[in-house]
Each structure stands twice: as structure tokens, then as C-alpha cells.
Amino acid sequence: MRVSTQNVFERGLSTLQKRQIELMNMQEQLTSGKRVARGSDDPAAAARAERALATQMRSASDQRALEASRNAMTQAESALGDAEELLQQAREHMVAAGDATYSDAERKSLAVAIRGLRTQLLGVANRGDGAGNYLFGGQGAQQTPFLDATGGVQFRGTAGESQAAMQEAMPLALDGRSSWLQAVNPSTGQPDLSVFDVLDRVANELDTPGRSADEISQSVKDGLRDIDAVAGNLRSHRARVGELLNRGDAVEVRLSQQALSAQTERSAAEDLDMVQAVSSFQSKQTGYDAAMQTYAMVQRMSLFDYIKG
Amino acid sequence: MGASPLMTLGMRAMAANYAALQVTGHNIANAGVIGYSRQRVELATAQGQFSGAGYFGKGSDVETVTRSHNAFLTREALATASLANMDDARLAQLQQLETVFQTGEQGVGYSALQFLNAMSDLASRPGDTASRQVVLARAQEMAARFADAGGRIDTMQGLLREDLKTTVASVNELTKNIANVNQQIAAVRGLGQPPNDLLDQRDQLLADLSEHISITTVAADDGTLGVFAGGGQRLVLGNQAQPLAVVDSPGDPSRAAIAIMDNGKPLRLDETAVGGGRIAGLLKFQNHDLVDAQLLLGQMAAAVAGAVNAQQRLGVNLYEPAGSVPSKDVFSIGAPRALPLSANAKDASGRFLSEVTLTTVHPAELQASEYEMAADPSGTPGLWQVTRLSDGLVRSVPSGGEVDGFRIDIGNPAPSPGDKFLLQPVNRAGAQLRTLLRDPRDVAAASPLTGTVGASNTGSAAIASLTITSNTVDPQNTASITFTNDSGAYAWELRDRDTNALVASGTGTWVPGKPLPSDPDPQINGFELQLSGVPQAGDTLTVERTTNPASNNGNALALAALRDQRLVGLTRQADGSLTGGATSTDAYAAAMADIGVRVQGAQAINNISTAMAVGAEQRRSSDAGVNLDEEAAKLIEYQQSYQAAAKVLQVAQSIFETLLQTAAG
């Protein structure tokens, strides 16, 4: 078989070019650290990486939603703690009012103190979360959810809880109606005892002058019973918030694990194995070097060199 | 016997070897010329002179100069070069197309997910203007990425047409030149010797031509060559060339097609008729890959934006008072269209007589395909046959009928029996995606209804979620649901919230794990409740107007939930249920992988066809090409022969001189 000189040149050259392109591609991968820069590099891996990226973004989004809920719940927890403390103070005033030696004037001053506590409690119940929502606004409230109206404090929010956008139920606001206005009434058994009504009632009782020791003792007894009932209701809500915060911690662990495994998955799908890549690059380089040397040697040989002038 | 025959013989030998040296020199000179076939002097022994003592040789004659040419190998080289060029053209286009489907953070899928993630952030702060601004910005970004990707596909289509025009122009130039060379070859045919260099020139023109279009050749008796396109259409016959032209595709005029000019009238060539070469590669890419990319992108845009729009319309925006400004769509989506085929019936002024309109009804059921619509072959009036081009599925629909999520309305007058339409439900959806929202208040984050449980309920039931399922919801009506036993039976009433007039009432049974109400119980007011816990007899639920949309996140939650919904490419089964489909993330990953696989496949095919073309060219050139070492050897050979012939002449002369001296002496 014979060969055409021109064809030998062309083929040698195109093989060299092919090797050069391979080296260039390899170099591109080494520079970017990515094995998959476009879909065609490995379509299955590219799709895998795409899904992993979506999971990563989703975890980050869920973490933000969780953070919003935890922020609100932490504040709600501390608000309920404050409320408990204020009720404890009211209870102490009540206990003091039971002292039979107290005059009407002294009881009156205790009533003033209790009214002060009630005002503080209303402030606690109307606390915001700093992000435009009310801690006890339930499913939404336009203005402060609790309004001092004739006939007692009214709930103007929407009962229920609003949820953050994630799979686990994580509330953004608590149902103020059930925590503040719906303690179980010890005398009727109905869930209709309001924190504010209880304090209003006991303050009014203490305010009433000229009562007998028995009457006073009875109203203190009733007052303490009711205060304990509403405080107990707040405490049980506080325990639930504590539970939600615990759940939030567990969810956070799950979300960060999810993010991490998605990141690992993405990296496994599209990142370059550096050791393998460097060794492969070196072997390609050696091959290219050898190809260039032999090409130059073969192309130099010609019969014309041996024809003596 | 004298000395002169020897002299003549020597001179003849010198002339023959000189001719051989000349041809060798020609070979060496043309060693690097593309398309040159090496030439050879054919020497023949001159017939001997008869004498009484037998025949005396008279040396050798130069008979002719031939070129090394193997018709079979040449044809093989042309055919494989056609294929290699076709695959190469398609690969180059596909590689460019792939950049439209970027991976990771640069991708279209990323922006869609970012937009829905912004809805999740908005759910945490439904009244917050900053969060609403982020939603608007992300919606803009998503629309921009879709429009950019669609725009790049359109640009590629435009450039492809220009590319085809340039290629067709060089094809026309080449066929004209072949016709000219044909004429020259026919003219010198009478001389009886092969015009080697003209033949080489023609072969090279054919090689150039076959890079653009697949050809077959038929030799005529007069030495000319007839050239035909892959499908048998005549390109060159004798000294006549038929030009090609770029024309509009019969269905979609934005696509290009190739036609052959027959007496000034363009005759459209089928993609398969072009066979191979660059033109076939470009057409194949245009008609399959580019269209599919456009469809995949459009399907995803129409489905995701359609789902977002539908959900947004169910929600309540932030304008005061609540509900005073109806919720606007988030996106405007490129409309579906039905293109009449160019051969359809027209009126006197050239306008098409009948029109067909398409309307998207269920964006989630749209498929990444185009459709062809023609009169029903059974001849049933009012019935139309719709063929899905991606898989050939044929369905018959009446006017107003629905196919794959879109409705077909036949205009008046009805199409003529021979009329056909190309239906494109999603082609423009991606490229023409725009956002319509400008004001942060436009985002409908709130649900129109809020559900609450009765204050004195004894059961543990709570409302886990409230979903608006239909836009028939009327917030003016308040629904009261009362459980009548402990196992979920309930009675409901729907009353006007202002007048307390009874609008509707009914009963149903709640089944744990299912929404309330669920089939077969009647709808109450276009909502569905998911309950957690268990209700007891006497427990009540109330679903009424959301009084404070600024702090309600019901619809933002529903929008964020689209992230997990299969909303692209669902299939409606015969029983009405929906199957299959993909989430927006999966749909994009699949589209990207689809294009990636095509590039990979095209790369593999291109490697094979290039290797075949290289091999064929090597075989052709091993026969026809010049080997310089061989020519060097021939140079020595003919030089020595020439020297030997010169020696003969010298001997003849010295004999003659000897004779003269003897005669003189």
C-alpha cells in the first residue's frame, strides 16, 4: 500500500489537534474544578446536580421559615414567662389582701397595684415579634389583637395559628384567644376565663369598701383560685411553646443535614476528582509530547535528502 | 543498415524519459494541491521494423498521460464527507443550543425555584413590603431568564437561516462551476486524450459540493457528469445547473426550508431529500433539536407561570379595602397559536379564509409538542383530526374540544377540507414570558377565607390548612360546620355575612386523612380544610372572610407549596385522573439532560462519521495522492534512463563518425 504525502501530513496534524483539544478540555476541568460544566459532559450527573442544588436551596428557604417561627416562638415564650411573673405578683397582692387587719384604704392600694399589673399584662398580650406580626395575633390581626373595651378585653385577631411555609407545622403566631381568654373556669368547667376579667374582678372586689372579714376571705379565696386557673392556662401554653422550640431544634438539625447531604450529592455529581484528573492530564501530556516528537521526526525523512546533487 | 535508426531510437528514448521527468515534476509541483490526482506517463513499445533478419525494435513512444483515479473510492470519500459534514454542522449548533440550558445558579430552573422560595419568605412576613419587593424582583428575574433563553433560541433560528442562505449560495456557485467544467470537458473530448487537470478540478468541485449536500453522480457519454441531490433532484445536467433557494417552511414561516428552482418556481425539498452535508445537518437541527428545545422551555414556562397565575388569582392582595382590586396575574405567558399551512384556501386578497384559535385551559397538561390539525378522514362534519407530532398520537375533536390542556376553536367559515393547521400551544410561552406585577401590594399572599374552630369545642380537631380549590369562592358568605356525631358526620350552612340570609346548606362526612369536604360530598364555598386531631359531636368550624389580609399568609403558603407539586406535563387519563408530570425542578433537570444527551449523542455520531470520512479520504488519496518519496525514486529512475538514452545517441554518433573517418581514410 502506498500513502499520499499530503494525507500523511494532514492526518498527523489532525491527530495532534485532537490531542491538543483533549488537553485543553482537561485543563478547563482542572481550572474550574468541575467535571460537569454543561449538560453534555454527563447528562445524568448534571440532572442529579440540578436536583441537589434545588434541595440545597429548599433547605435554605425552609431554614429561613424556621428562623422566622423560632424568633416568634422565643419571644412568645419569654412573653408568657413575663405574664406568669406578673400573675405571680398579683397573686401575692391577693394573699396580702387576705390579711384581716388591712383597712379599706390598704386594700384599695393593693387593687391599684393589681390594675397596674393588668395593664402590663395587656401590653404583654399585645407584643409584636419585631417583624410586623403579633405574637398572640393568631391567624392575623390588623391592630393590636387585644382591645380594652366595655365589658372586658376583646380578642380582635383571628383565632388559630398562622404557619410558616415548611413541611413541619411551625407557627408564626399563637392563638391569643385560647391562651389569654379561654382558661377553664373552675366554677363552671367552661373554657371562658379571661386573664383580664379575673384581674378586673379581684381589683373591683378589693376596691369595694366596708366588707366583712368573711366576705373578704371569700373573695380572696375565689380570686386566688381564678388567678391560679388563668396562670395554669398560660403555663400550659408556655410548655407547648417550649415544645415547639425543641421541635424547631430538631427540625434545624434535619434541615442542615439535608443541606449537607445535598451539597455532598451535588459535589459528587459534578466535581472533579483532582488526583485522577491530574494523573490523567499528565499521561495525556506525555502522549502529546511523544506525538509531536515522532511527527517531526517522520516528516523530516525524505528520499530527496539522499539524492546527491 | 545505417546508423540513423539508432539515433532516432536514442532520441525517442530521450523524449520519452524527458516526458516522464516532466510528469514527475508536475506531480512534485502539485503534491500539496488539494484534489490533485497523481499522473503517469504511459509508455508503449514502438512497433519493430521488419527486415529479412526479423523485427528490429524502434524504441518506445509516449502514448498518453493518465491520472490515478478510482471512481469507487472517490464516491465513497464524497459520501462519507457528506455525512461527516452533516453531523459536524448539527453538533456545532447543538453545542451552542446547550448554552441556553445552563446548569446550576445560571439556569432557568434556578430562577423559578428562587421565585417560589421568595413566596416562602413572604409567608413568614405577609405584610412586609420588603418581602413583597423580593417576590417581584424574583418574578422579574424568572421571566427574564425564560425570555432570554427563548430569545436565544429565536436568535439561533435567525442565524441558522442566514447560515443556510450562505451555504445555498456556495452550492449554487459550485453547481454553476461544475456545469462550466462539464462544458469544457465535453469540448476537449474530441481530442482523444483525457483532460486530467480538468477532471481533477471537477472532482474537487464535487467534493466541495458534497460537504454542503449529499450528491450522486451519473456519467454521460459526452464526458459530462450529471449531479443529483440525495433524493434524486437534478442539480447539474450537462452544462445546466439548477439553483437551490432558501424558502419558508410551509407550517411555521419562521423556519427555513430548502427548495430547488424549477423554471423559476421553487419546489420544496424534504429534509430527507437533502440526505447529507451541511444543509441536512442544519435542517435536522432546526426541525428537531431547536424546536424541541423551544417546546421544552415553553412547556415549562406555560406550566409554572400558569400554576402561579391560577394560585395568585385565588388569593387576596394588599389593596384596601380587601378585595376591592381583583388579584392580577403574576405573569403574561406567550399565547398558543394555530398557524395555517401556506397551501390553505385563501381569499382574493391572499388572506387565509378560515382561522383556528387555541386557548390554554389546563397549563399542567400541556405537552412539549406541536400538533397538526386536518379534516377528519372519516369525513364526519365538524370533527377534526389532531396529530401530536412528538409521538404521532391521533385524536378526533370537535370545535371547542380539548387536547392536552388546550382548547381548539374553529373559526367561521370552517376550514376547507384540504386545509391543515400547525398547532403550537407552547412554542412562544418561554420567549414571551413577562411579569405583570409592578406594585408590592399586587402579590396576593392572603387567602380570601380563614377557618377557625369553635371556642367551646370539646374534640381535639384543629385546622391544619385551608386550601382554596376553586375561584367560585365567595368571601361574602360564611360557612358554619357542625359535627353531628363522633365519627365525622357534619352539617353545614352557608350564610351571607351581612344579612345572615341562608345561601346553601348540606351534610357530609369527614374521613380522617381526607380534606373536608371531599368527594362525593358537595362543595361548600370553594375551599378544602385539612384537619388535625379528631372532632366530636357538637364541635363547630367556621370559614369566613379573612378580615385582615395584611397578616394572613394562606395564599403565600399555597404558592410556596407549588415547589413540591407536579405541575409540568401531566397526562389526563380516560377516567379523568391525572398521572405523570414533574415538579418545576425535575422538569428543568430533565430538559437540560435531554439537550445534554443529544449533544453527547451527536458527538459520538460525529466521531464515527469523521473517522469514516478520514478513512475514506485516506483510501482515496493512497491511490490518487502524490508520494514524494516515490516521485524522488522516479526522478532517479527516469534520470538514469535519460542518461542511458543519451549514451545511445552518443554511441550512434561515434559510429557515424567512425564511418566517416573510414570513408575519408
| Overall mean pLDDT of chain A | 91
Helix content of chain A: 55-70%
Beta-strand residue fraction of chain A: 5-15%
Q: Which quaternary structure do these chains form?
A: heterodimer
Which two chains have the most extensive interface, and how many residues on each? A-B, 65 and 82 residues
Low-confidence stretches of chain B: none
Q: Uncertain regions of chain A: pLDDT < 50 for 5+ in a row?
A: none
Mean pLDDT of chain B: 92
- Name the structural class of chain B: alpha+beta
The order of strands across the largest sheet of chain A is 1-2
Largest sheet of chain B: 5 strands, antiparallel
N-to-C span of chain A: 29 Å
Radius of gyration of chain B over all CA atoms, rounded = 41 Å
Classify the secondary structure makeup of chain A into a structural class: mainly alpha
What fraction of the residues of chain B are assigned to beta strands by DSSP?
Answer: 15-25%
Computed CA radius of gyration of chain A, to the nearest angstrom: 39 Å
Describe this structure in words.
The complex is a heterodimer of chains A (309) and B (665). Chain A has 7 helices and 6 strands, in the order H-H-H-E-E-E-E-H-E-E-H-H-H. Chain A is mainly alpha-helical and 309 residues long. The radius of gyration of chain A is 39 Å and the shape is rod-shaped. Chain B contains 10 helices and 30 strands. Chain B has helices spanning 4-29, 71-98, 108-124, 129-188, 196-212, 271-274, 277-314, 554-560, 584-624, 628-664; strands spanning 39-45, 49-51, 54-56, 60-67, 215-219, 225-229, 234-237, 240-241, 244-248, 256-262, 265-269, 331-332, 337-340, 356-360, 371-375, 383-388, 394-398, 401-403, 406-410, 420-424, 434-435, 449-453, 462-468, 477-483, 489-496, 502-509, 527-532, 540-545, 568-572, 578-582. Chain B has a 5-stranded antiparallel β-sheet, with no helix packed on it. In chain B, helix 1 (4-29) runs antiparallel to helix 10 (628-664). The two termini of chain B are 21 Å apart. The mean pLDDT of chain B is 92. Chains A and B meet through helix 1, helix 2 and strand 3 of A and helix 3, strand 22, strand 23, helix 8 and helix 9 of B.
